[in-house]
Amino acid sequence: MTLEVLSPSSALLDGRYVLQDRVGQGGTATVYRAEDTYVGRTVAIKMLHRGEGALRNADRARTEEALLASLSHPSLVALFDAQLRRRRPQYLVMEFVDGPTLAERMAAGPVPARQLAHLTRDLAEGLAAVHAAGIVHRDVKPSNVLLAPRRTRRGGQWAAKLADFGIACELDDARMTSSGHVLGTLTYMAPEQLRDADPGTAVDIFALGLVMLEALTGEAGYAALGTGRVAAIRRLTTKPFIPASVDPDWRRLLEHMTRLDPRERPTAVEVARAARALVRGDRRVELSAA
User: Fold this and answer.
1) Domain segments of the chain as ranges
2) Which of 1, 157, 160, 237 to pair with 179, CA 20 to 30 A apart?
3) What's the CATH superfamily of 3-95?
4) pLDDT of residue 173
5) Which residue stretches of the chain have pLDDT < 70?
6) Active site includes 139?
7) CATH: 1.10.510.10, 1.10.10.10, 2.102.10.10, 1.20.210.10. Which one for 102-280?
């Protein structure tokens, strides 16, 4: 890799990408806004961190590259390019989403129900494509949902895009970590993940239900249980708290999505259908799950 400094605020990466401002940073990578000079478009460059954990970060990036390369949907962040060869700085080149994360939006307060119905529809349709490809995301959470301005306001102010497939897995290779090591974010984990069971697509439905519940009410579904090992154990047999003020149709959808038994949860296709009904203002959300 070559990195040529062009100015105090930009640099040229591999003779193609002009790195500009930093737009995000996490435990495994730093994300930059960049210009792809070959095709003239703005992209996001996800630069993997070196040092401790670098090998694990690279492995997850290879997983993300392989899985995203097999997917194409408007509600999934697109992958354009990757440099993951060893002994060189490693990065992914992805679609740049010019908007906040859902976590940032939620920090400003609850999301209006109609706007949230649009976002739920987007994410459920994206997950339906993911699941149809035999893939489980395993880390659906507000910070992994990017909000892009819609071209028309008929679909709400924002369009939702699911990002970060670093710990996603294929259904026929569901266990990608050793027994006793659980991958995901505790706040949004399904009971079967906490039991260290092989994850199925229903874990994404449970997580999406918790995300939508928190976005709608401003309170996490398991806030009363606190955190830590004891709280995780109690969650195995405890349903998330849904306030009495939640609209009956929203309540019915969220209760189905967060059933403790994964066999009783709706599919992503069914959630998308229910969300479209909420967008239309239908007074009865139909779900076929038990």
Assistant:
1) 3-95, 102-280
2) 237
3) Phosphorylase Kinase; domain 1 (3.30.200.20)
4) 63
5) 1-10, 51-54, 152-155, 173-184, 283-285, 288-290
6) yes
7) 1.10.510.10
CA–CA distances in Å: residue 22 to residues 8, 18, 26, 46, 59: 13, 12, 12, 10, 23
- pLDDT reported for residue 53: 65
Q: Which amino acid is at 27?
A: G
Is residue 248 a contact partner of residue 260, using CB atoms and an 8 Å limit? no
Phi, psi of 277 (to 5 degrees): -65, -40
Residue-wise pLDDT for 171-182, tens only, equals 776 544 444 445
Of these residues, 14, 98, 122, 139, which one is catalytic? 139
Q: What stretches of the chain adopt beta strand conformation (E)? A: 3-7, 10-13, 17-25, 29-36, 41-48, 79-83, 91-95, 135-136, 145-149, 158-162, 169-170
